[in-house]
Amino acid sequence: MHHCFAYRIGTDGNSFRSSDDGEPSGSAGKPILGQIDSKELTNTAIVVVRYFGGTLLGVPGLINAYKTSASFALQLNPVIKKAVLINYRLQFDYTILNDVMRIIKKNDCVILRQELQLFCIIEASVPRSQLELCILQLKNLKSMELSAI
Fold it and tell me: Three-class SS of residue 62?
């Protein structure tokens, strides 16, 4: 029995690994990783378990079997896209709360924690795709202190 796998992780996709688990070199892990890469996925892992059934497949047959299995797994499972979020701490005067909340909502930020008093603190996650614009808008507000956390 062989447990061959491949994965690609991280926001940039630079961390990856594949294993042939005793199969001929390059006949299992690389075809699995190739299927992950063909869909341009990250934070994805696939494990294919193969039992020997008495028929020798040869290297081309193994490559096709592992590639096809990985392809089916990716077709049958939905891809979930998640935004990459950067956490920030906002400190500001209560008088600009409405402006801050409008910017947070407009840029699809997620509020993690908030303390709303005379002087407010909000910890929020900002989507990386909106980061530059959101930070610029927040910095344009008077009495705003902004720091990455």
Answer: helix
Instruction: List the CATH code of the domain at 85-148.
Output: 3.30.70.260
Parts of the chain belonging to CATH 3.30.230.30:
2-76
| In this structure, CATH architecture of domain 2-76 | 2-Layer Sandwich (3.30)
* Helical ranges in the chain per DSSP H: 29-38, 58-76, 97-106, 131-139
pLDDT tens string 69-87 = 999 999 999 999 888 899 9
DSSP string, 31-59: HHHHHHHHTT--SEEEEEEE---S---HH
What pLDDT score does 12 carry? 82
For residue 137, the SS3 value is: helix
Is the pLDDT at 3 greater than 90? The verdict is yes
